[in-house]
């Protein structure tokens, strides 16, 4: 059993991660900005806590005593680059202070490469609004890659499509490198449930380290 702190636990991905971890017998601290809005998260195996993933002090306080951290957090009330780069700095600083060495982050498929050195968001027809959001995730990666840190981080990026929030858990997935994984013609849309499986698997058995890794069916 591990103690896992999940930032952004109130979102679609975060809720799936919490549920997957608890099902496997882990103890989870579900971190949200406003616990009053997410009281349904609290229950057996889950402690609901207030926290700010962009504050190193808040991260350090809420993460103390845990074995691993998962960040599923996102905010739309500030620029994508400001949020994701700021969260990366705060997580690295706060987790180091709290003694947590394993950090898993949910990335975005549009930062994966479609050709050497060419991420999806640099494709000629990629929409500008989506590119701005993707560049925030790219800035997060820049912070992680440049950091002189003991934190063993991993960014898992699902395919560059909207994920299926309703599909049931299959437990099936594959992990690649920093390139978009080719999909079978009959492959289902990747689900939040199976993204959660991949994340918790990496908590239980760390196989990928300090990289952006594509995850898909």
Give a structural overview:
This protein is of the alpha/beta class. It has 5 helices and 10 strands. The protein has helices at 12-23, 56-63, 80-98, 128-146, 192-204; strands at residues 3-7, 27-32, 46-50, 68-71, 102-106, 113-115, 118-119, 152-157, 174-175, 212-216. The protein has an 8-stranded mixed beta sheet with strand order 3-2-1-4-5-8-10-9, covered by helices on one side. It has a two-stranded antiparallel ribbon with strand order 6-7. Helix 1 (12-23) links the parallel strand 1 (3-7) and strand 2 (27-32). The radius of gyration is 16 Å and the shape is globular. The model has no long low-confidence stretch (mean pLDDT 96).
Total number of beta strands: 10
Mean pLDDT: 96
Number of helices: 5
Measured distance between first and last alpha carbons: 27 Å
Morphology: globular
Give me the oligomer status: single chain
Largest sheet: 8 strands, mixed
User: Helix coverage percent of residues?
Assistant: 25-40%
> Structural class, from secondary structure content?
alpha/beta
- Indicate the radius of gyration in whole angstroms: 16 Å
């Amino acid at each position: 059993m591990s103690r896992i702190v999940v930032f952004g636990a109130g979102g679609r991905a975060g809720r799936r991660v919490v549920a997957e971890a608890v099902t496997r017998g882990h103890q989870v601290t579900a971190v949200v900005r406003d616990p009053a809005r997410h009281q349904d998260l609290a229950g057996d195996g889950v402690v609901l806590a207030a926290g700010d993933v962009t504050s190193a002090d808040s991260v350090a306080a809420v993460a103390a005593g845990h074995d691993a951290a998962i960040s599923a957090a996102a905010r739309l009330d500030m620029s994508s680059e400001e949020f994701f780069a700021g969260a990366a700095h705060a997580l690295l600083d706060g987790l180091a202070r709290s003694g947590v060495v394993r950090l898993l982050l949910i990335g975005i498929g549009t930062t994966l490469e479609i050709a050497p050195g060419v991420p999806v968001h640099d494709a000629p027809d990629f929409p500008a609004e989506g590119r701005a959001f993707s560049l925030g995730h790219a800035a997060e990666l820049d912070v992680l890659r440049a950091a002189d840190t003991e934190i063993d981080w991993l960014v898992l990026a699902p395919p560059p499509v909207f994920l299926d929030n309703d599909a049931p858990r299959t437990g099936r997935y594959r992990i690649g490198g920093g390139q978009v994984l080719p999909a079978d013609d009959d492959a289902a849309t990747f689900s939040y449930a199976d993204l959660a499986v991949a994340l918790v698997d990496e908590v239980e058995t760390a196989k990928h380290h300090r990289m952006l890794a594509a995850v898909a069916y």
